[in-house]
Amino acid sequence: MSPAIRHLRTALHLAVVGVPVLPLRDGKVPFGNCRACAKNACGGRPNMKRAGTCNCPAPCHAWAAATTDPNVLTSPLWVAAWERAVCVGYHPGGARLTVVDLDNAAAVAWARETLPTTRTVATTRGEHWIYRGAMGSHNAFRAGVDIKSLMSYARWLGPGTGRMTDLPSAVRALGAKEETTPARGEVVSSLPERATWDRTVATGCRHTDSYVRTGLERGLTLVRSRVESGAGSQAFGVARFLAAQHAACPGPCGLDVIGAEIVAAAVSVGVPEPYARRAVTNGLSATERGAA
Length: 292
What we know:
With about 290 residues, this protein is an alpha+beta fold. It has helices spanning about 5-15, 70-75, 75-85, 105-115, 170, 210-225, 230-245, 255-270, 275-290, and strands spanning about 20-25, 30, 85-90, 95-100, 120, 125-130, 140, 145-150, 155. It contains 9 helices and 9 strands. A hairpin with a 4-residue loop joins strand 5 and strand 6. The chain is globular, with a radius of gyration of 19 Å. The two termini are about 30 Å apart. The model is unreliable at about 175-190 and about 290 (pLDDT under 50).
């Protein structure tokens, strides 16, 4: 059986039991928007933070495109995506679930000491703890721990083991003070002073200036594009990816300055500065912790 058929069969099985699914491409991330939906030009899906009228037949808008409709899942545009997919993703919040994503052994040990037991799914480096009930999603609220529920997606890794329990107040409290990108017009923090990366702060970097600046600018564009939601989570991901590029450098590589630029980009679209700094700090240190 080809991977595409296997992924589609898994997706259809999940859809039958009410779990909205979507294909994930290389890097275990959603497929990019089509030209009509690029930069949210279409206005967005009805289930997004600022509801739009987009009904694009392609798997655009990441988690917001996740569906249980078999006709959509087997449509030509989705089949083309399944043929390039590396795995199946799902929208926990759409299934009224919350995933506590524990990215390493230390995070798993913390959860076992802190959180009520529930259904557990093994991951490459840690575990997913799945609770019945939805809440806001929050990335990097502490080292190696993300909360994935509403306006988020998770990778399907199997049904897991153990009895699924109701989402407890202990988990809800984890993200109670965290913020995703606020609604348009809300002011939650001031823009921090922006440092600029150059060779003077990276005397031990083995990469060319062009390589570093190109990667950084692409990352900053991704963060600034998250005007709907998730800019803090995107900042974490960008910081983690860029830090990994310098793992083999003798250093220094000016990662603190790179981090400051990412923080400024997140704050510019409404992420509270303390949350942005925490997300970026955790992202930059993820390589050292062995996260991926």
